[in-house]
Request: fold
Amino acid sequence: MDSSTTAYCRRLEQALGGAEKLADVTGCCAQERLTGNQIAKIFHTMPEEYARTERISLVSSFAASLFLGDYAAIDYSDGSGMNLLDIWTRSWSPDCLQACAPGLEERIGLPVASYSALGAVSSYMVDRYGFSADCKVIAFTGDNPASLAGLRLDRGELVLSLGTSDTVFTWLDHPRPNADGVNVWVNPLDVDAFLGLLVWKNGSLAREKVRNACSGGSWDTFISQLQSTPPGNGGNMGFYFYEREITPSIVGVHRFDSQDEPVSSFSAETEVRALVEGQMLARAAHTTNLGGVLGAQTKVLATGGASVNPALLQVVADVFNAPVYTIDEPNSACLGSTYRAKHGECSAASLLSVGLHVLRSKILEQTHYEPTRNLVVFIGWLGGASTAFRAVVSSAVTEKCLAARPSADAHKVYSRMLERYTRVERLLLTSGSK
Reply:
């Protein structure tokens, strides 16, 4: 993943008064992959191209534009992952915009609630592909917010998305943003709630590297090797950060024996389990930063490509000491997009959101964004009223399926390992690995 924007991250944090201050506003500290810092890089390294740029879209809003036949607004939830949105007012932060690039607000447009109707499909879509002229385009969002919808997340549940990057996210009513890798986004299903996320760059890409090196490129062999070794891996533990990680900020592969002494290599079977256990221990160790503590009622909902691997899910259950569920449709983001479309159509706000969005735009165009800031926030609040998402999807037939139950014996092993993992991680952070 691109990590070329570190200098722009530090500049943004400095402009806001530090990493914690930035997190207080945007829900997270500056991160290289986030859009605001990528835009800053373009502005400084390709100023002529930036000057010629009329519109900047996220992948989600660009895809919506293809159906709308016009520029589509960025939704609050995906827009939260830009280091630009004030997550409390649901509007772009003037300080963040100014720190990244001049003239940025008019290039990204006004954000909208994630269930807003942006308008009808374009006449091209009607003529070329047979869409109904009455078909509405609901604001598109990102994969993690869409997965939250697809999994019909309840309070007290954690989602573990096992993809190119691994992500843990959960529903938050009272978030505590901080600079320790936590991301707080506006909730796509309830404009007054939030989505707490932790992201690890080294997800499936790391699993694939170890599979190719130790399992001959075969997932079946990888699973057999994992199952052939006991929980705890004989005390052997590994940190596999092929790219500099976000949480924690460490790079490199680091292996330790049962005495916490560094070792240069493991056997193939030990390497496979060290990778899987190390990843899941990291996910559990940092989950408390989301503002909730794992408890007796916790459920883990697994999604993403690796969620079809039962041996891996058993490690998840044992480490988190919680049952793991999946849904019949492993691509929860796609399923969530269909739920969100119905939610948007059913929301009373959808009938008003287009007119409100246009009205907001006209007001802001004439006032250069500043004098009517409070009025804009109020109008955005009016456009945020919606039909309850749970009521909309109450008849959904896709059930959460129990995939793995925690083993009490295995969890005892992992409880001790979790303490070790946290201690060794701190040592790596204070060493040259950082």
Q: What stands out?
A: Confidence is low (pLDDT under 50) at residues 367-385. The first strand starts at residue 85 and ends at 86. The first helix runs from residue 6 to 16.
